[in-house]
Amino acid sequence: MGLLTAGRPLTWKDSEPHRQRVKSDGITQFLHAYEKVRDRRRPMLKWGDEVEYALIMIDETSKTARLCVRAPEVIEELQVAEHLQISGESSDIIVETLWRPEYANWMVEGTPGTPYRSFIRDLTLVEKNMALRRAEIQGLLGDNELVLSLTAYPRLGCKQFTDPPKPVYGKYARSFYTSDMHINPHPRFRTLTRNIRLRRGSKVDIHMPLFMDENTPELVPVVCDECDPGCVMPPEEVTIDDHAYQKIEDACGEKKDDVYMDSMAFGMGCSCLQVTLQCTDIGECRHLYDQLHVVAPILLALTAACPAIRGYLLDTDVRWNIIAGSVDDRTPEEAMGKIGKSRYDSIDLYISDRKAMIPDIYNDIPIAVDENAYKRLRDGGVDDLLAQHIAHLFIRDPLVIFEDHLAQDNETDMGHFENIQSTNWNTVRFKPPPPDSDIGWRTEFRSMEVQFTDFENAAFSIFIVLLSRVIIAFDLNLYMPISKVDENMQIAHERNAAESGRFYFRRNIFGEGPHKVPSFVCCCGHVHVPKFSWPSEFDDCGLPAEALELMTLDEIFNGTNLSGPNCNFAFPGFIPLIRTYLHALGTHADNQEIISKIGIYLDFVSDKANGTLWTTAKWMRHFVETHPSYRKDSRVTEEINYDLMQKIDKLSRGEIEIPELVGSYFPKNKAGLNSAAELEKIRQEVGSTDAKLRGASLFDGTIQR
Ligand code: ADP
Ligand code: MG
Ligand code: MG
Question: Does the keyword Ligase apply (predicted)?
């Protein structure tokens, strides 16, 4: 979850005199870095995924499956190889996986050891690397412990939802449901928790709609969900606030008509799947940032995996609004006034400087900027849009300031800039290169919910990489007014949006008008000529180029051919576009085998989008609703949850099939892998200079018209 500086964090009060300075130094640092890296070019795609896992403790006697809070010690063991490599103690160590702490003590984050590169053969490494990650975690767990790639634990916040249970109402979160002892011990995390609460002047206040079943009561208790009033977990420190325990007891009598949550752990304790892409240069990076933002709600809906939390079925399918609420540090005045969104939310501004981006049409929501930052950025030679982007990030306060890291060399350090940058958690992130590294400009895609199996997570990661190639190679224009992307974010929350939701989407996604799909030259030296078969003639009915249509995910992914009384409208669909792109690359026989393997992932995504396969949320909801003990009361009981966690575990190991969720794709195509050495061998082949082994390059180079 971003920057993990070690040090002594200041309290919110003590950080007050330093906050402006940190922001001002952050801008100075950005300006120095920008000067050094603005022209940096890295004409080789590099990319990587991030998967967040949850640890679960099974108790067969009591039939419970609770979150296991042993992640910090597991992460320490997982990081041994990396530490040995960094320290130079062991030269033959192979680091194919990297591990990072996340917010909650049940969470582990894993990434590939080195980023993938641009060759199509790299794509065949993704699922194997994910399998290795899962095996490495599993190898450190006890017999009763499971590792699941689970977006939201359905009973997060119920009484005794962790093993061992922890006392609630600690001094950092003051939550009725979660404990400060659930927060990762790195000081950044608890300081964030406390300072968000202090800055906004109250606990975070999250309300999600309750799913109403036949026997669901109109109002549900705020605290005691399965027990008599008064028997919540004991508070951690009754003495910190004389009224603390009383507050919980008062809340016990209270009821609400929605599912209320009151701490950062509800959102930041959820898991997600992210993909970071290195771009050729800053221009491509800005373009991809914009284009991928449009796609963010679409992928959020397709990967939906959060139908329940706090033991209740929700009337929504995704985590986003929960996590946005869980770190919303705005004061009531800010929220009512100039600052429209939480620090964790969709972006407010497109930033590309290309012709296709028409600010007057597309940047249609008011954005607040830090005026001082904006002026300094403009004076420092940063163009208007980029200056607005950075100055918009800088409307936020630094939430964690380390006393021992206040003094930085603003010409070389980026710590104060990163402080603000890494606590703006948006759908996409624009990442400037660290000046002292070899890294290029990067865009991070952040909206996806994590899926149960490596196969699914690999499929969605690969899909995003290939979509990014298509966007660049075919010069796609996905722009729509940014307010419409916000509407799509809310549509993505609707129950079963993947099947029945209709999303705003652009009718004509080709920059140069219908049918003008450009050929492209890649670094293999060949000109690739895509041959595209349209469902029918495109007819824009005289509509402006930027006209939008309401489309289903099936139409957006698989294409559509709508005939109305007055016009035909054909939309090619992401999957056919990607196949066309791969086809254009794959004329060489060596690539065919790899491309047909990749095709299986695309078939899977296509089947998800056309409803043949259910979303994870739909399947989980169905599991709960058809469980023999379900009382049609929207409750995910310990018993239902226990069976659910076991089933997900068996699926992720490839021991069972769940056809509704993964069809016959998995475990049939499961990539097995148990050792880093095995992966290293394959990776060496991929790294080979022999084009036969590594396959064609996905990099597109220039576009020819
Ligand atoms: P975060 O900002 O989310 O903490 P990290 O910098 O830790 O992100 O990296 C996230 C992802 O970026 C990982 O999947 C990693 O493999 C990938 N990555 C690392 N270096 C590069 C690079 N040069 N280009 C593209 N992706 C990279
Ligand atoms: Mg993370
Ligand atoms: Mg990330």
Answer: yes
Q: Which atom of ligand 1 is nearest to the CA of 115?
A: 16
Interval 305-319 mean pLDDT:
97
Distances (CA, A) of 274 to 255, 301, 457, 499: 37, 15, 10, 23
ω into residue 115 within 30 of 0, thus cis? no
DSSP string over 604-655? HHHHHHTTSS--HHHHHHHHHHTSTT--SSSB--HHHHHHHHHHHHHHHHTS
pLDDT, one tens digit per residue, over 620-660 is 999 999 999 999 999 999 999 999 999 999 999 999 999 99
176 φ/ψ angles, rounded to the nearest 5 degrees: -75, -15
Whole-structure pTM value = 0.94
Q: Which residues are within 8 A (CB) of 384 and not within 5 positions of it... i.e. 6 or more apart?
A: 378
Compute the distance from residue 381 Cα to the ligand 1 centre, in Å. 28
**Ligand 1 centre distance from Cα of residue 111 (Å):** 8
What residues form DSSP beta bridges with 275?
49, 445
DSSP 511-533: TT-TT-PPEEE-TTSPEE-----
From 182, 173, 177, select the one nearest 158 (Cα to Cα).
177
**CA–CA separation, 434 vs 671, rounded Å?**
34
For the Cβ of 392 lying below 6 angstroms from any atom of ligand 1, the answer is no
The verdict on the CB of residue 446 being under 6 Å from ligand 1 is: no
For residues 247 and 256, what is the distance between their CA atoms, to the nearest angstrom? 16
Q: Determine contact, residues 301/497, Cβ cutoff 8 Å.
A: yes
Cβ atoms of 343 and 267 within 8 Å: the answer is no
CB of 46 closer than 6 angstroms to any ligand 1 atom: yes
* Contact indicator for 146, 55 with CB cutoff of 8 Å: yes
CA–CA separation, 99 and 379 (whole Å): 40
In the predicted structure, residue 532 carries a pLDDT above the cut 70? no
Q: Is the CB of 101 under 6 A from ligand 1?
A: no
Instruction: Name all contacts of 389-393 with Cβ < 8 Å and 24+ positions apart.
Output: 389/349, 389/351, 389/430, 390/27, 390/30, 392/348, 392/349, 392/367, 392/368, 393/420, 393/421, 393/424
Give 391-445 pLDDT, tens digit per residue: 999 999 999 999 999 999 999 999 999 999 999 999 999 999 999 999 999 999 9
